[in-house]
Amino acid sequence: MRKNFKTLYTRDQIAEQVCRLGGEIDRDYQNREILLVCVLKGSFLFFADLVRAISCPLLVDFVRMASYGCETVSSGIVEMRKDLEFSVTDREVLIVEDIIDTGYTLQSLFHRLLERQPRSLKVCTLLDKRIDRKVPIEADYVGMTLEEGFVVGYGLDYQERYRELPELYIFEDPSSAGEGRPL
User: Can you list the domains of the chain with their CATH numbers?
Assistant: First the structure.
């Protein structure tokens, strides 16, 4: 493994949490159809595994939000780069996010979708990182918590790299990695 990476959660730990979350979602929705909204790009691997862990009927859709650019800290300015194809009006909607950090991205998306009048709107996140939270937003379903650090792997990236890593890693001092050039 690269010297700047420290294992945070293994494949088995991730799989166990995804299975637990799927069970909790099944219990809460009790066979009602859910529209699962994947927040691209970081959530795609978690999303795929979670979809397979849920037995309730579901639809899938995707949004793409951006607030980081090429940095490791959110700019606080959130833009929607891809909107949903399905209407959320009068549907059970579950936003699936990779990590809640500052909360800016999730809060922006949550309010945008809430204005479209879903029957219910909840949030599922793989990682909840509370130390940097800037806005009051919470997830209804949380896989794992993270005290601090910048995470890569299992879909999460640094400057579009490292998404393919099968586990979650703390990326220690990404600025010194020598790979920080823009794509």
Answer: 10-147 (3.40.50.2020)
